[in-house]
Amino acid sequence: SMRTPTAMIVGLVLCPCGLLLTLTGTLAPNWRQVSLIPDQPSDLVLEQGIWDLCRERQSTHDRHCGQADELGYFKEVPVQVARGLMPSSLVLTVLGLVVAALGVRCWQEEPQHTVAGAAGLVLLLSGLLSLVPTSWYTHELEALPAPSGATLVVGYSLVLSYLGSCLEILGGLALTLSFHRCCKEC
């Protein structure tokens, strides 16, 4: 018989994938793209993340980050909340994965279901911690400061963060199914 339950394996596959996606989404400066800015070259794109602002000429791929925040973008509450919750989520995910590894432990006869279930709850929480700022930012996408008349679209970092959050939530849920086994044994 298989020593490690399928739900635990699913959790241990989805959560590290979620971690990589949210890490990339947190660090990459592209939560929102601002393009077709009036009185600017038509191929100019501004990329706004939670830590950095970049401008790129798409025809030449000439890219400059560390742009001045003239519109007060970083002062906006959704950006500030994302700056706090995204790193907190990453730390919690790493912590949850360490606990999950201790609970699942494929090298021992029986996995520790209570420990794996607790790790699932931590990972579920970490997924929710990154889902809140990504959802809020998406909701406020049009309201955040931008040059007037420009076109605003969701950037890849926001999509990656959202997908990562969902994978962590699903992986966390899979691991919390380990509690079912504890209840059966009681």
Structural features, described:
There is one protein chain. With 186 residues, the protein is an alpha+beta fold. The protein has helices spanning 6-27, 77-104, 113-139, 156-176, 178-185; strands at 32-35, 44-48, 53-57, 62-65, 151-154. The protein has a five-stranded antiparallel sheet. It is elongated, with a radius of gyration of 20 Å.
Strand content: 5-15%
- The number of helical elements comes to 5
CATH class: Mainly Alpha
The number of strands is 5
Overall body shape = elongated
Quick check: average pLDDT?
93
What can be said about the biggest beta sheet? 5 strands, antiparallel
Are there runs of 5+ residues with pLDDT below 50, and where? none
Order of helices and strands: HEEEEHHEHH
Report the CATH architecture: Up-down Bundle
Overall tally of domains = 1
Q: What class would the helix/strand composition place it in? A: alpha+beta
Radius of gyration (Å): 20 Å
Please estimate the helix content: 55-70%
Side-by-side strand order of the widest sheet: 4-3-2-1-5
Our measurement of the CA-to-CA distance between the termini, rounded to an integer number of angstroms, reads 22 Å
CATH topology: Butyryl-CoA Dehydrogenase, subunit A, domain 3
Keywords:
Butyryl-CoA Dehydrogenase, subunit A, domain 3; five-stranded antiparallel beta sheet; 186 residues; single chain; elongated; 5 strands; alpha+beta
What is the element layout, followed by pairings?
Elements: H1 6-27, E1 32-35, E2 44-48, E3 53-57, E4 62-65, H2 77-104, H3 113-139, E5 151-154, H4 156-176, H5 178-185
Antiparallel strand pairs: 1-2, 1-5, 2-3, 3-4
Helix pairs in contact: 1-2, 1-3, 1-4, 2-3, 3-4, 3-5
Transmembrane segments: 85-104, 116-136, 156-179
Family: Belongs to the claudin family.
Membrane topology: Multi-pass membrane protein
